Amino acid sequence: QVTLKESGPVLVKPTETLTLTCTVSGFSLSTPRMGVSWIRQPPGKALEWLGSIFSNDEKSYSTSLKSRLTISKDTSKSQVVLTMTNMDPVDTATYYCVRIDYYNYVYYFDYWGQGTLVSVSS
Amino acid sequence: SSELTQDPAVSVALGQTVRITCQGDSLRNYYASWYQQKPGQAPLLVIHGKNNRPSGIPDRFSGSSSGNTASLTITGAQAEDEADYYCNSRRDSSGYHWVFGGGTKLTVL
């Protein structure tokens, strides 16, 4: 059974750094062509892809947020960590940890964590 | 703004067929995936690739693509299909970057 669970602070202050941890089970972070993405959703708004990390440690980031984001993984702990610097109230959102799978030349997001709502306020 | 464009809202009568569309240049090169999201829940993958349904997704959900437009069709919509639907695809070949559509709110009348 594949599960992903996000953990981290529910409230951060403006200019602070957000660190979220995703703990996965039911699959390995070293499985070829598999990866984990972070996706967020501001209240009442659309989904936004933030970044991804693959089993070979290849990483990619949203162009607009690249300077603020870092994604890393600890395969032995089955954890993926998202760091976002210089948080602003517009970053208030539910942050999802999502598995990337691959089939027939297509990548897709097949398992989603429950999400964690992060509010940015002083 | 999204690089994939969806109609904000669509409605369908119970038991009828509805098509939800998604437009964008990336769809000329990459298949869309489709996600269903109900209030207070995480998104759920319903279609990926050319027209693949994950286990547990009813066969009334299907996907298709033509040119720069991807479509999600629900044949015989049920009350439980009322939800927000998001399309998503890789952005381009310059790396593993993804984009989402703005979402379509489906109302089942």
In terms of topology, how is this protein built?
The complex is a heterodimer of chains A (122) and B (109).
Chain A: E1 3-7, E2 11-12, E3 18-25, E4 35-41, E5 48-54, E6 59-61, E7 69-74, E8 79-84, E9 93-103, E10 106-112, E11 116-120
Chain B: E1 5-6, E2 9-12, E3 18-23, E4 33-37, E5 44-47, E6 61-66, E7 69-74, E8 83-90, E9 98-100, E10 104-108
Parallel strand pairs in B: 2-10
Antiparallel strand pairs in B: 1-3, 3-7, 4-5, 4-8, 6-7, 8-9, 8-10
Question: Top keywords for this entry?
Answer:
heterodimer, A: 122 residues, mainly beta, seven-stranded mixed β-sheet, 11 strands, globular, B: 109 residues, four-stranded antiparallel β-sheet, 10 strands, 0% helix
Provide a descriptive summary of the structure in words:
The complex is a heterodimer of chains A (about 120) and B (about 110). In chain A, the strands form 2 sheets. In chain A, strands 2, 4, 5, 6, 9, 10 and 11 form a 7-stranded mixed β-sheet that branches. Chain A is built from no helices and 11 strands. The model of chain A has no long low-confidence stretch (mean pLDDT about 95). The N and C termini of chain A lie far apart (about 40 Å). Chain B is mainly beta and about 110 residues long. In chain B, strands 2, 4, 5, 8, 9 and 10 form a 6-stranded mixed β-sheet that branches. The chains are: A mainly beta (about 120), B mainly beta (about 110). The interface between A and B is medium-sized, with 25 and 26 residues.
